[in-house]
Design a protein that fits this description.
Structural class: alpha/beta
Helix content: 25-40%
CATH superfamily: Spore Coat Polysaccharide Biosynthesis Protein SpsA, Chain A
Distance between the termini: 44 Å
Shape: globular
CATH architecture: Alpha-Beta Complex
Oligomer: single chain
CATH topology: Spore Coat Polysaccharide Biosynthesis Protein SpsA, Chain A
Number of domains: 1
Number of helices: 9
Length: 258
């Protein structure tokens, strides 16, 4: 059965009433309309659902109590009908009304594509830009990977290579990308435009404890695939994520030619 939507936008909601309006407004303003919204709500009130209905009466809303983030995202994937899956967090928003139209025009028949992101603070000010097209398969070994918040992936890849592993609480997205792009060697297409505004302070960077826990999970992920990574890899991963230092980017580019 062929999908009847081009994009499935999956939103995991949990007590998101303070931020979800901007997320939904960025979707409603899109010039490209061939998409569906699948909201998986794990909160214990109806306020979030009412807000979603106000912005999009056709959104598919699935209520699942006490679900973790990756459990909710998996439910969204299973219930999606689009050709490409995109995960939009309730702290984030699409960068401009042209985002989905640009992706539609440029993605072709690629299995997956990613673009640039802007990281913003609570005052919606840009504090960092993530704009890089030098991703390559071996970059995973040096702590570098595409930003998952700008990633569009064909739905059939989830059927072929699996969903998020819910045993991970922070780094399930990293495990998914490692599995798809490093192990299964799915080719990525880079789209040189901004995809979304990502709010700083997500699961992996909320505080020092979350950062430590995230890197411990990454180490467990590497171990589960029998990868031999050193603590230097973790060190690079932290620096790249926080600073995106030019000399480290040069280092990765140099290693890609080895």
């Amino acid at each position: 059965m062929h999908p009847n939507k081009f994009f499935s936008i999956i939103i995991a909601c949990k007590n998101s009433t303070k931020t979800i309006r901007k997320t939904l407004h960025s979707l409603k303003s899109q010039k490209f309309k061939n998409y569906e919204i699948i909201a998986v709500d794990s909160s214990n009130n109806l306020q979030t659902i009412n807000i979603i209905r106000m912005y999009n009466s056709n959104a598919k809303i699935i209520k699942i109590f006490n679900a973790s983030l990756y459990e909710a995202l998996n439910v969204g994937v299973r219930n999606s009908r689009g050709r490409y899956i995109f995960f939009l967090h309730t702290d984030d928003s699409l960068y401009s009304p042209e985002v989905l139209l640009k992706v539609f025009n440029q993605i072709g028949n690629s299995d997956a594509a990613y673009g640039n992101i802007k990281i913003i603070n609570n005052q919606l000010q840009t504090i960092r830009k993530w704009k890089d097209n030098f991703f390559f398969k071996k970059s995973f070994k040096f702590g570098w990977h595409p930003p998952h918040t700008s990633l569009f992936v064909k739905k059939r890849l989830f059927s072929s290579y699996g969903l998020f592993k819910t045993k991970y609480h922070i780094s399930g997205d990293y495990d998914l990308m490692l599995r798809f792009f490093f192990i299964k060697k799915i080719k990525l297409k880079y789209l040189n435009h901004y995809i979304n505004n990502m709010r700083a302070g997500g699961l992996s960077t909320a505080n020092w404890y979350s950062s430590v826990k995230s890197n411990i999970e990454c180490w467990k992920i590497w171990k589960s695939y029998n990868f031999k990574f050193s603590f230097f890899t973790i060190f690079l991963k932290i620096l790249l994520k926080i600073f995106q230092l030019n000399f480290l980017r040069f280092f990765l580019s140099f290693k890609s030619r080895e």
